[in-house]
Amino acid sequence: MAQPRASTDEEGAPLLDRGHDGAPSQSSSPLKSLFSPSRPLTLIEKVLGGIAVLLLLLTSVFIGLFAGAEGMLKKERGKHGHGGGGDGHDGGWKTEYVTATHTATTTRYGTTTVAPAPTGKPERNVCLTPECVILSSSILQSLNQSVDPCDDFYEFATGGWQASHSIPADRGLYGAFHEVADHNKKILLKVLGSIPSKKPSKDASVDELNLAKLKSVYSSCIDIDQLNDAGRKPLIDLTDYIVDIFGEFDVESLASEVELLNVADEWRGAYDDSYTVSDDLLATAEKVDSLKQAKKTGNIKWEVPAPEEPAVQEFYQYRPNDEREERITKALAWLHSRGVQGLVNFEIEGDAGGEDSQIQSLWLYQAFGSLPSKEYYEEKPILDLYQSVVAGILTDIAEHTTVRQDKHDKRDFISDLEEVASLGEANMDSLLEDVEELVEGAEWPWPWPGSDRKGDGNGNGGGGKVPGRVDEPVEKRMEKLAGKVVHFERELMRAGADPEYLFNPHYAYNPYPTNRLQKSLPFLDISTYLSTFAPRVFPANITVTYPPYLKAVTNLIDKTPDHVLSGYFVTRLALTYAGALGPKVTIRQHVRRLEEVLRGLKKGTEENRVDVCLNWVDEIVGFIAGREFVREAFSPEAKAEGEHIIRSIVSAFHDKLPHIAWMDKESATAAQKKAEAIIPKVGYPLSPNTTDPISLQSWYSRLTVKEGDFFGTVLGSTLLEESRTWLGLGRRRNRNSWEVSSSPVNAYYSPPDGEIVFPAGILQPPFYSLEWPSHLRYGAFGAVAAHELTHAFDNSGSQYDEKGRLREWWTKQTVEDFEKRAQCVARQYSKYYVYDAEGKKVHVNGNLTNGEDIADSGLAQAFTAWQNTLNTTSSQSQSERLPGLNFSDEQLFFLAFARVWAQLTRPATAVSRVRTDPHSPPYWRATGTLRNLDAFHKAFGCKAGTGMNPPKKDQCELW
C-alpha cells in the first residue's frame, strides 16, 4: 500500500516573510501588523483584518476537530491490530495492493498500534458525520488486512468480524442478519419499556390506546407466574368443546377395531435419551420448509409435469353415515377456525393458474402432521417419543374429562326418587318396577342394596361396567389410545404427496368444481363447512393440490373408530396451543420434550422468554409494534430513498435486457414488460396503514386483550386472522397488504403478486442507512434489492408472466440458452463446500441452490445502477469517502456487499444446511458472486488466475 504523503507542516513556507538569516522578521507577523500598526488603519482595513482573524480561528477549530476524529479512529484501529495509511489516490492503491499488501499490512500489524494521524486540511469529499465515522470504524473492525482481497475476499472483508464474535450457546449459527435482528429486538424492548403499565385514561389518544394493547400482549406473555398458575384450564376449556361436538376419546376399545390401528408395539421402547436426530432426517425437515417458502417466493424451478397424467379415480364403496359426517364437519370447522390443522386443510391463495392471479381462491391441501416431515413417521425412536408425548397430553386432559364424564353420568339419588314419585299415586303400582330399572341402569353413584354389583369397600361399584369405559388406570388407557392416534397420523402422512409435488404449482393446480369435490370427500359436508366461515363469495371451484389424497383420507376415516378420531382432534388442538401455556404446565412440558429432540436442544434447555414473547407480539399485534419500530428506526426520507434505489436497479436491468446475447428479441421484450410491472414495497405496509394510528386501531378493534389472559389473547387473535382471511375469498387481493410486518429482517419476491418487499427491519446497518454515501447504500441494500428483482427472471420467476400468472412466456430457444448458463452456475457452485466436524468437505448441491445463486448475481445490476447515479446527480454524497479508509468508491461498494454475509456456523449446522438450504453458504454467496464479476476484478486490480479472478472458462455469466 502506498505510504502517507509528507506532512504539510514540513513544507517550505513562502508566505512567511523571513530575514536574510532565515529567521522570521519581527515585523512579519500579520497579527502584529494588525494590533500594532506602523500607521493608523482605515475602517475597511480594520474590517478586513477582523474577518481574517475570524477565518483563522474557524480554520484552526476545523483542523483540530478533524485531527481529533482521525486520531480517535487511528487509535481504535490500533486496538484491533489494524494498520493504516495511504495517500488517498485510487490508482496507486490499486496497482500496489496485489503485490505489496500482504507484506505491508503484516509489518504494520506487528510494529504499530496507531497509524500517524493526517495533519493539514482534509479533503473536501471526506464524510465526517457521526454516521460515517461509526460506519468507518465498523468496516475497519470487520477487515482482516493481512489477507490479500484477490486471494480470499470474504476473509479480507469479514475476518475481523469473525475474530471478534462467537456463536451463542443456543444457536447453530450467528451472523450479520442475526445482529440486525437482535438490534431490532432491543428497539422494540425499549418501546415496550417506555409504555406506562397503568390503563389509559378515558380521554387517551388513539396512539395511547394502541400502545396499551401492545403492552398488554407483551406483559401477559412475560408473566410466567400467572401463566403457570392458570395451568391447563384454558386449554381444557377448548378440549371440552371438541368432546361435546364429536364425542369422548376416553372409552373402551372395541373388539371390532381394525388391527391396522394396533401396531404401536413395533416402535415402543426404541427411544432413549442418547438419541439424536440424524442429519439426513433434519435435511428432510428443512426441505419441506424450503419448498413451502419456495411456492410463495419463487426461488426454485418447478418441473412441469408430463401432460399424460393418469386420471384421478372417483370414489369406492364408502359407507354413508349422516350423523357421523355432521359431527366431523362441525369438529373440523371449529378446529380450522382456530388455526388447528387436521384431516384436510383449506388455504386461501392467489389463483396463479387462472386469468387473474390476484383473485383469492380456495385451495385444499392434505393434512400436515406434528412432526417435521413424512420421513420422521418412519423413524421408530421418534415415533416412540411422540407416542409418549401424545399419551402424556391425553392423560392430562382425560384426568379432567373423566371427572367431567363421571359427574355427568352419576345421577343424584334424591332427584331420581322425586322423579319416580312424580309418577303419581295412580302409578304407584309401577313404582318399584321403575326404581328397579334405575338401579339396573347403572346410574347410581354406589351399589344399590340387593343388586348384583359389588363394591370395593370404598364406595366404588364393581361387577358391571359403565358402558364405553374401561376399568384400568387412565395412564394405561391413554397409552393405548396414543399408539392408535400416532398410527392414524402416520397413515395420513403416508397418504399425502411428497413436498416436491405438493408445493409445485404445476402439479398442485387442479381446480375441482365444488359439487364434484363434495362427492370425492363424502365424510365432509363442504357447504356447511364453508358457511361456518361466512365467506362473501361461495367458491365455484376449489383447487386440490393432490387429488389421490381425497380417496386415501376418506378410506382411512371410514375404518377409524370415533374415539381415535376424537383423540386425534384433541391432540392436534393441544399441540397447536401448548405454546400459549405456562412453561411449568405439564402439557407444555410434554411438548417441550418433543421440541428439544426435534430441534437438537440440550435436555432441559430453558426457552428465552423475551424472544418468545416478542415473537408473540409480532404475531398478535405486529402492525402496532411495526409502527413503533418505524418511528424509532426509519423515516419517510429513508423509505423514499429505498424506493429510489430499487427503481434505479429495475431501470438498469430493463435497459440491459435488449443487449443480453442469449435472449432473443421476443423474450427480451416480454422481460422488459415484466420489469416495468414489478411493484417495489419498502418500509411498511399501508393496509393497515402503519403511519395512521386510527387505521391500526380499526384493524385490531375486534381483538380483546385482557390483562392476565394471554391464552385468551392468542385464541382471539387467531380467530380474528382466520375470519379476516376468509372474508377475502373470491375477491382481489389488497395490493397494500404485506405478508410480514415492519420489523423482521427479511425481504421477498412474490411471483403471483409481482412485487418485491423490503421491511424497515432490513433497512438497518450493515444493510442500509440514509446517511451513508451512495456506494455503500447500493453495495449492501442495493444487492438485496437486486437479488429479489433477479428472482423474477431466474429459473423459477421465468415461469410467471408480468401479471403473475403461471405461464411459459420465454421462447423455447431462450429457455434452452438460459438453461445452459444456469447449469454453468450449478456446476460452479457444486465445486464449493463446507467442512464437517471431522474436517471433511461436504459439497454444495449446485442444482438445489441454483435459483438463489442466480439471484445473487443481480449484484451486477446494483453496481450498474449506482454507476448510473454518478452521471445523473451532482450530490457531493455520491463520492464521499469515509475517514481512515483508503478505499475507492468501487472498492467500498464491494466491501459493503461482502459484510452483510459475515457469519459463523457450527460444523453440524453447516452440513445440515448445505444439504437442504436453497441458499449457498454465506462464504460462497460472497466469493462465488464476485468471482464472476469483472467490475470487482477491476476495482481491486485482481489479476487473472488469482483466487477471486479464476480463468474465464471457470466463470459464469447470466444477467
Automatic annotation (TrEMBL):
<keyword id="KW-0479">Metal-binding</keyword>
<dbReference type="GO" id="GO:0046872">
    <property type="term" value="F:metal ion binding"/>
</dbReference>
<feature type="compositionally biased region" description="Low complexity">
    <location>
        <begin position="24"/>
        <end position="35"/>
    </location>
</feature>
<dbReference type="Pfam" id="PF05649">
    <property type="entry name" value="Peptidase_M13_N"/>
</dbReference>
<keyword id="KW-0472">Membrane</keyword>
<feature type="compositionally biased region" description="Gly residues">
    <location>
        <begin position="457"/>
        <end position="466"/>
    </location>
</feature>
<keyword id="KW-0378">Hydrolase</keyword>
<feature type="region of interest" description="Disordered">
    <location>
        <begin position="1"/>
        <end position="35"/>
    </location>
</feature>
<keyword id="KW-0482">Metalloprotease</keyword>
<feature type="domain" description="Peptidase M13 C-terminal">
    <location>
        <begin position="746"/>
        <end position="956"/>
    </location>
</feature>
<keyword id="KW-0812">Transmembrane</keyword>
<dbReference type="GO" id="GO:0004222">
    <property type="term" value="F:metalloendopeptidase activity"/>
</dbReference>
<dbReference type="GO" id="GO:0016485">
    <property type="term" value="P:protein processing"/>
</dbReference>
<keyword id="KW-0645">Protease</keyword>
<dbReference type="InterPro" id="IPR024079">
    <property type="entry name" value="MetalloPept_cat_dom_sf"/>
</dbReference>
<protein>
    <submittedName>
        <fullName>Endothelin-converting enzyme</fullName>
    </submittedName>
</protein>
<dbReference type="Pfam" id="PF01431">
    <property type="entry name" value="Peptidase_M13"/>
</dbReference>
<feature type="domain" description="Peptidase M13 N-terminal">
    <location>
        <begin position="149"/>
        <end position="259"/>
    </location>
</feature>
<dbReference type="GO" id="GO:0005886">
    <property type="term" value="C:plasma membrane"/>
</dbReference>
<dbReference type="InterPro" id="IPR018497">
    <property type="entry name" value="Peptidase_M13_C"/>
</dbReference>
<feature type="region of interest" description="Disordered">
    <location>
        <begin position="446"/>
        <end position="470"/>
    </location>
</feature>
<comment type="similarity">
    <text>Belongs to the peptidase M13 family.</text>
</comment>
<keyword id="KW-0862">Zinc</keyword>
<dbReference type="InterPro" id="IPR008753">
    <property type="entry name" value="Peptidase_M13_N"/>
</dbReference>
<dbReference type="InterPro" id="IPR000718">
    <property type="entry name" value="Peptidase_M13"/>
</dbReference>
<feature type="transmembrane region" description="Helical">
    <location>
        <begin position="47"/>
        <end position="69"/>
    </location>
</feature>
<keyword id="KW-1133">Transmembrane helix</keyword>
<feature type="domain" description="Peptidase M13 N-terminal">
    <location>
        <begin position="475"/>
        <end position="685"/>
    </location>
</feature>
